[in-house]
Amino acid sequence: MDRVIDIASDGRHLSRERGFLKVTEDGAEIGRVPLDEITAVIIHAHGTTCSASLLAELADRGAPVVFCAANHAPRSVLMPLDGHHAQGARLRAQWQAKTPLIKQAWKQLVVAKIRMQAAALEAHSHAHAPLEMMARKVASGDSSNLEAQAARYYWPLMMGDDFRRDRDAPDINALLNYGYTVLRAATARAVVGAGLHPGIGLHHSNRGNAFALADDLMEPFRPLVDCTVHGLAARNGTEVDTEAKQALARLIALDLPLGDGQSPVSVALSKLATSLGQSFETGKLALPLPTPPDALTLAGLGA
Predict the structure, then answer these.
(1) What domain range includes position 9?
(2) What's this model's pTM, rounded to 2 decimal places?
C-alpha cells in the first residue's frame, strides 16, 4: 500500500518506533503508520518536529519529506542521497545523454500529457478533438510549444472561462497546488529510486529547481489531479480540507492502463523513471507512458 502522510496541525512530533512512523502530541500517541507503506510525508504545520532517526529511515526507503507553504505549494523537499545500486553509472549516462534523445523524450511526454488532457475534457463533455489534433503535431523537443497552446485551450473548458493558473492564488489553485505536490513527491521518489538526479531535467531547467526531472516526468499525470479538483470543487467547494487532501492523495493508487495491463500511478511513475534511466544508458528511447483511463473513471475522480 502506498500512503501519503499529511501533517496539518501544529504541536505534532514525528518519530520512528519499531518500523513505524509514530505521531504524538503533548507526549501522547495519536497514530502510527508502517514506514514501508509511506510514499511521502507532507508537512503544512510549521510547529511540527521530526526526529533525525525518522528522517533517516524515510530516506532509506526513498520517501521524500515535503515542507509546504500556506498555499500548499512545496517550499523544500528532503530526499535521500543514494537511490540505486548503479547510481554512479546512471548519473553519468543522464548527464551525457544526447540532445536528440532528450528532445524525443520530451516530445513523448508532451504527447501523453495532451492526450490525457483531451481525455479529461471528453469525460466532462467538452470538445476534445482540437487537443487530439495538437497531440499529433508535436515535434521533437516540442519546438512549436504545443504544450502551451494545449493549455490555453484546456484550462477555460476544464475550470471555467475566468480561471487562471496561479500558484499563489487561493481556492481551486490551492487545491491544484496540493494535488501537484503529492504527485511531485511521488515522482521525485521514483526518479531517485531509478538512480537519476532529479535536478537534471529534460525540459524544465530553472536554475533554482532542484526537481526539474520530476516536473518533466509528472506532466502526463497532471490531468488526473485536474479531474479530481474539478470533482471536489463541484461537490464540496474549493477548501483544502481533510477530505480533499485524502482524495488527492489517493490518486497515487489509481490504476492506469499501461502496456498490456494496469498499474497504479506510483508504479507507473517508477516504471517511467526506470525506463528513462535505461534509455540514457543504451541511447535508445523506450518510455512506458500511460494511456488515459476510461471516461467514467476520469469523470468520477473527486466526486
Answers:
(1) 3-63
(2) 0.85
Q: What is the CATH number of the domain that holds 232?
A: 1.20.120.920
Write out pLDDT tens, residues 65-102.
888 877 777 778 887 766 555 667 888 999 999 999 99
User: Rounded to the nearest 5 degrees, what angle is found at the Cα of 131, between the Cα atoms of 112 and 248?
Assistant: 55
Backbone angles phi, psi at 294, to 5 degrees: -70, 165
- 41 forms beta bridges with 5, 65
User: Which tens digit of pLDDT belongs to each residue from 257-297?
Assistant: 998 889 999 999 999 999 999 999 999 999 999 999 999 99
Query: Using CA of residue 196, residue 200, residue 202, residue 203, what is the dihedral sign?
Result: positive
Overall number of domains in the chain: 2
In a domain, 75, yes or no: no
Nearest alpha carbon to residue 225 among 205, 203, 245, 200: 245
